[in-house]
Structure formats: C-alpha cells, structure tokens
Amino acid sequence: MPTEAKVYRKRKQYFIKESVQGRYLRVLFVAIVAPTLLITACLLYLMFTLMANQMGIPENIHANLIPVMKQIGWILLFGLPVLIAALFWWGVIVSHRMAGPIFRLEHDLEAIAKGDFQRRIIFRKKDKLDSLANKFNTVLDILTAGYVERGQQSQQMRKVG
Amino acid sequence: MKVIDKKLLAALLVFHGLFFGRSAVDGAQSLRTFLFNSQDVLKKGWEEKIHTKPMKVAIASMDGSSAMELDSADAASGYFFKFEKPWDPNQYPISSFTWRVDALPGKEAPSGAIEKNEGSVQVAARRGGLGGRREEEGEEGLELSRKEQDDYFRIYFITDAFSIAFAKCLEYVWDVHRGVMTRLRSPWSDSIRLLVLENKSSFGQWRKEERNVLEDFKLLFGRTTWDKNIAAIAFMLDTDNSQGKAKAFLREMKIGMPAEAGIGEGKPLYHFVWQP
After folding, report:
1. What is the domain partition of chain B in residue ranges?
2. Residue pLDDT, tens place only, B33-55
3. CATH topology of domain B27-273
4. Least CB-CB distance to A48: which of B163, B186, B232?
5. Does position B1 have pLDDT exceeding 60, yes or no?
6. A69 lies within 8 A of chain B by CB
C-alpha cells in the first residue's frame, strides 16, 4: 500500500540542480533581456535620428526632443536595473519549476531503487508535471503490487513445500 | 601687349568691383547656389520645419529684382536643406548669403553696447583676422543668449553627425542690440554657437555676407583645427520667445566655395552693402 501522499508546499531552495536550472535560467534571461535591450536601443535610435531629422532646426531639437530624451534616459537608468532584476527573479522561479521536478524525480527514484517501495512521486501543483508524476506512480503501483503478489506466492509455495 | 592686357584686366576688375559691388565670390563656383527669387526654390530639397507656428513666405519684388520675404508673428519656423553628401569646409571654406531685415522683435539691450563690439571687430581686422583673437580669448568671449530673447534671423551651418541632435551648429544671426561679431552660446545647447553679423543699425538694408565658415567654426567652438563635414544648412526667423513680429528677406546663398574664391584663411569677416 502506498504511503500518504507527501505535499510540497513552499520552496526552501531556489537554486537546485545547477546543470539543468542554470541552463534554463540562462536561456530565459537571454530570451527576455536581449530583446528588451534591443527594442530600447532601436527606440532611442529612432528618436535620435528620425525625430531629430524631422525636427531639423537645432534649437527645436534641443528645446523639445532632448529634454524628453533626458527624461527617458533617467527612467531607463533607474527602471532597467529594476526590470532586469525582476525578470531575473521571475526566471529563477520559472527555471526552478523545471529543475525542481527533475531533482525530485531523481531523488525519489533513488529512494525507490534502494527498496522504499512505498514512496510515490509528488510534485508541486504549479510545477505542472502532475501527469508525469501520476504515470510514474501508476507504474510504481503496478510494479509494487506484482512484487507483493509474487512475494505472497513464494511464501505460500514455501509453506506447501 | 601682355602687360597692357594685365593692366586692362586689373582695371576692369577694379571698375567691376567699385561700380557693381561684386567680389571674387560672385564669380566663384560653389557647391550649391540658391536664388530665392521664386517659391519653387523651396521645393527643391528644402524642408519646412515648424517649431511653434509657421512664418509667412512670399516672393517680393524690390530694387528691381525678386527676393524671398519672410514674415513672422509670434512664430518660429524655418527651412532646412540637407546635402546629399556632407562636404569638407577645409576644402570649401567660403560661403556667402544676401539678406535683409526690416524688423525684429525689440529686445531689452543686453550688457555690452554695440560700439564696444564694433570696436573689437576693428581690432580683429587690424590683427589680420579673427584667428589671432581666438587664441587670446578662447571660450571666454562667448556670451550666453537668454531663452526669452532668443529670437533672430538665423542662417545655420550644421555638421555631419550620427544625429542632428549631436551635431555642431554654427548660426549667423541678425540681432537687434548686440554688436557685430558678438559671439553667443545658445541657451538651448552648448553645441549651438551664434555669431552676430548684423544688428538694428543695418535694418532696411541689403547686406551681403561672405564668410569663411571654417574659420568661424574654429572661432566659435574654440578649436585650432576643424574636421567635421557640413551636412546641412537652414534658415529660420523666430519671434516665439519674445512674441513679437519680424520681417526679413533672403535673396541668395552660395554655399561651399574654395578659399581662393574670396577672403582666405584668417580673414573671415566680410560684410558690405549689396548693390542691386
């Protein structure tokens, strides 16, 4: 009989399985930050070239466009580090949702291999790999049931014998 | 025979200069020449740039020929011309333009009388050009124009840059009170420098300016050499800061002539009454 399902509720470690999470984190970070910086650079280029050329008269540019650009510069100076830090933290959580189940799966399979047949695989709800865990647990249930049945049969044979 | 020919040629040149008020620049080849005798000239590469409100542009017939009349009332707008290929002022340092102002918004006279600045021009001329004066004064000779009085008839020379926002800009301005050759720093940006060529003492007169743009860039920006090409020119009549009225005329611009065409290195100041 399987033991009562263990429920994992709160993360205590945000960096596990560095080889997997680190790779996911790097990919996520580059996929988010690189386009953000590229779009920012393109917008600045657009404003500095197209808008400045449209305005044409230097006083007009320095009286109207440059103050706006300075404000945007300040917003970017303080906003971008905050945004990048927030994106990094979000990347840590998302990558942990991938690396966490793999870590848990490895850990639980190791315990089962050592003879703890009552152990079952439980992931966090947000990890969204419940179906994988359920299939693993079904296989384990079948294997455990067969193992127990074979054990009982061999005991009966020993008694008869 | 050859001696006679030379004398005759010299006499003809002197006669021509005296009676027709022309200089060597008039016959020189320029990179671009603009004759503002019809509205069509503004359709050939010139772009209207409106800062606050547009000025009125018309063609006026006066003194037997046509010129572009510009009227501005609490407005600020100008026309901008970008060269297909930026040109090197070291190669083509001379430019000339003929302009006239009948009215500019009255300004409170800034510190520094006209007479004082007129005097400094004479001193500069005696020293054989403004280059010598630049060595002595450097950036100190620059006066800061005030935002609320920053209304002039302006002719711009704008250098090539990644964006106009980063370009250096030299403006020849027609002011009211400031003396001729007063050097100004724009209140809007340090990369815009102004040089007063005329003031109210010349109101109502046609003035032809022949400038060594290269020397003026060096003078205004305090440099001994200048390596930036010129990418655009523009003109603007603005009255938005003082909310007044202005009337000005523009007749001709000859942009980019070799040094031999006119006044040469070290003698950038030439301005005289134009004879129609």
Report:
1. 27-273
2. 999 988 888 888 899 988 888 89
3. Jelly Rolls (2.60.120)
4. B163
5. no
6. yes
Is there a contact between B188 and A58 if contact means CB atoms under 8 Å apart?
A: yes
The full set of domain ranges for chain A reads 18-160
Residue B173 contacts A where some CB pair is shorter than 8 Å: no
| Cβ <8 Å between A58 and B51 | no
* Interface test mutation site (partner A, options B188, B192, B233, B236, max chain A beta carbons within 10 A): B188
pLDDT tens, residue by residue, B76-92: 889 999 999 999 999 99
Q: Is the pLDDT of residue A55 over 80?
A: yes
Least confident span in A86-90, A96-100, B109-113, B158-162: B109-113
pLDDT in tens, A112-151: 888 888 888 888 777 667 788 888 889 888 888 888 788 8
Contacting residues of A for B189, CB less than 8 Å apart: 58-59, 62, 66
Contact assessment for residue B69 and residue B249, using Cβ atoms and an 8 Å cutoff: yes
Residue A114, φ and ψ in degrees, nearest 5:
-85, 0
- Nearest-Cα distance to chain A for B189, in Å, is 6
Q: Which helix (H) or strand (E) holds B190?
A: none
- The helix-helix angle for B213-221 and B130-137 (nearest 10°) equals 10
Q: Please, what sign has the CA dihedral across residues B125, B198, B232, B190?
A: positive
Nearest residue in chain A measured CA to CA from B48: A56
Which residue, among A12, A34, A22, has the nearest Cα to A87 in the 3D structure?
A34
